[in-house]
Amino acid sequence: MSIENIAVGAVIIAVTLIISLIPILMGASRKRKTVKPTELFPPRGASPIDVLIQYYGRTADPRSLFNPLMLYWAKRGFITIEEDGKRGLKLTKLRDVERPDSNDGFSEDTFELEKSLFGRIFCRRKVFYTLGASEHFAIFYDKIMSGCRQEAEKLTDRKCKPFKILTIILPFVMLFAVSLTVIISTGEVLAIVMLFPMVAIGFVRGIPHFEFDKGSAMLYFLYTFFITCGCVPFCSTVYLLPWEAGALLSAALAVAIIILFLVNKKINLRTSEQLKNYGRICGFKKFLLLAEVKKLELLVEDNPEYFYEILPYCYILGITEKLKKKFDRIIMDGPGWYLGELRDILMP
Questions:
Q1: Could you give the CA distance from residue 3 to residue 99 in angstroms, rounded to a whole number?
Q2: How far apart are the first and last CA of the chain?
Q3: Which of 54, 105, 128, 335 has the most other CB atoms within 10 Å of its CB?
Q4: How far is CA 104 from the centre of its chain?
Q5: Contact criterion met (CB below 8 Å) for 204 and 222
Q6: Are 27 and 155 in contact, with CB atoms under 8 Å apart?
Q7: Is-contact 245 188, C-beta < 8 A?
Q8: Are 186 and 1 in contact (CB under 8 A)?
Q9: Where are the beta strands (DSSP E) in 15-163?
Q10: CB of 171 within 8 A of CB of 198?
């Protein structure tokens, strides 16, 4: 291949990647410019699920929601928590979950997910052991987590949809253009084999967003299909082509995979109202991380339950370990809804 043709292919790849990154940069810029007022609490009506979704958006990972929700329910008087050496934590139901008094940060859809999970935990009896959960409960919990991911998708779906479509179409256009460039410049019709990895990627990317277990047969099928129908023909073709052409096609395929499976999922554009909630949560997190122990001690004196009120949200924001060092220096009584040493058991 001539230097000019290599340059054309490289420009096509670079332009595609830059265009695909624009919505991510736009979203990051808007989040960075959002006002982040100092907040002593998260939005009053927001559950841990609400804070998770409003803070992380499409990148929210709800797999570790159980502990925050458990503490949130206990603080609101729905359950009590007791240590059990053999069966983990013992959760005892006191009453059914209720909507919070405030609509600040509240979402009806996430409340329905929370209510469904609570109902399933205590569907047969008023006591639940965390290490005694059945396989059926684990399956149901995964469905609830999938519902949380869908709500996170909805948070930015309207503004992100055009960009998501764009970042799906562009990689395939790029692969076709680069393949055509290689064919024209080298006369090697073998480059048409790039259609195989394009079809394989399109098939895998086009599968609806089901949640597959790590060892599921469907995942093995997808991996096998991608390798046999995509990777094998591509590697064989690259081996037979001139090294410049092979390198260009490899770069194009790598960029296409990055855009389709990484960049596309990182697009996170929000409305002004959604950014307002995000900014408040950021302000709450920043306050906790920067607050001196004396300030936190005053808050605990005014509200003895302050630590236990914010703890579920600290889990969500990933700051429990840093806060533990501060609150360990503050004398606090244990909450009435927990039998045991809460900070030693639930915090890192």
A1: 66
A2: 57
A3: 54
A4: 23
A5: yes
A6: no
A7: yes
A8: yes
A9: 79-84, 88-93, 127-129
A10: no
- Beta strand spans in the chain (E): 79-84, 88-93, 127-129, 338-339
Contact 234, 251 (CB under 8 A): no
Residue type for 115, please? K
Q: In what order do the strands lie in the sheet with 88-93?
A: 127-129, 88-93, 79-84, 338-339
Per residue in 128-152, pLDDT tens? 988 877 778 888 998 999 899 888 8
Q: How far apart are CA 132 and CA 84, in angstroms?
A: 11
- pLDDT confidence of 168, banded at 50, 70, 90? confident
Which letter does DSSP use for residue 334 in this model? Answer: P
Q: Enter the tokens of residue 74.
A: 């206990």
Q: Select from 272, 291, 277, 274 the least CA-distant residue to 42.
A: 277
Query: How many whole angstroms separate alpha carbon 340 and alpha carbon 18?
Result: 54
Distance, CA of 105 to CA of 54 (rounded, Å): 9
Coil, helix or strand for 34? coil
Return d(Cα 146, Cα 42) in angstroms, integer.
24
CA distance 249 to 262: 19
